[in-house]
Amino acid sequence: MRLRLTALAVTATALLATAIAAPPAIATAPAHPRAQLLHTVHHFEGSNCEPQGGQHHLCMFGDHDFKGGGLALEEGARIPRLGDYNFDNTMSSWANNTQFTCHWFTDSDFKGTEHRMNPGDRVDLPSQDDNNASSVYCEGSSH
Fold it and tell me: Long-range CB contacts (< 8 A, 24+ apart) of 26-30?
């Protein structure tokens, strides 16, 4: 009987050690769809929105003349509410360094007046469009 209890204790200790060392096999729910946007949108300072000299972003600037920092979006990014990024009604200039057409809208959820942002174009917004963007998306591989 004593031998059986000792063997049982050794087995229990081994199982406990294995359970502690290995992470539990728990099924995780898929990420929220908006979580995918986190890697396609980033804030930047100043006038250089392209990290490490790359040229694959739509650069939305807070000031005229492509200055003032802002948001950089990768191809396929969709932002239904720029206010979620503290950038609602803030854009004063933009540069589309992607190979795809992007679109900005005067209202959230891609509503209101639509404005095209063609690949390769750089625009310093006129006064009637200045600080009026509330949503934006770029065409690309995720559409």
Answer: none
| β 78-79/111-117 pair status | unpaired
Q: Please give the Cα distance from 7 to 1 (Å, whole number).
A: 10
Residue 62 CA to residue 73 CA, distance in Å, equals 14
Q: Is 122 helix (H, G, I), strand (E, B) or coil?
A: strand
Q: Given its phi and psi angles, is residue 130 left (phi above 0), alpha (psi -120 to 50 degrees) or beta?
A: beta
**pLDDT, mean of residues 111-121:** 96
Q: How confident is the model at residue 140 (pLDDT cuts 50, 70, 90)?
A: confident
For residue 7, the surrounding DSSP H or E stretch is helix 2-21
CB 117 within 8 A of CB 102: yes
The CATH-assigned architecture of domain 33-138 is Sandwich (2.60)
The pLDDT value given to residue 25:
32
For the segment 1-46, what is each residue's pLDDT rounded down to a tens digit?
Answer: 454 444 444 444 444 444 444 333 322 233 334 434 445 888 899 9
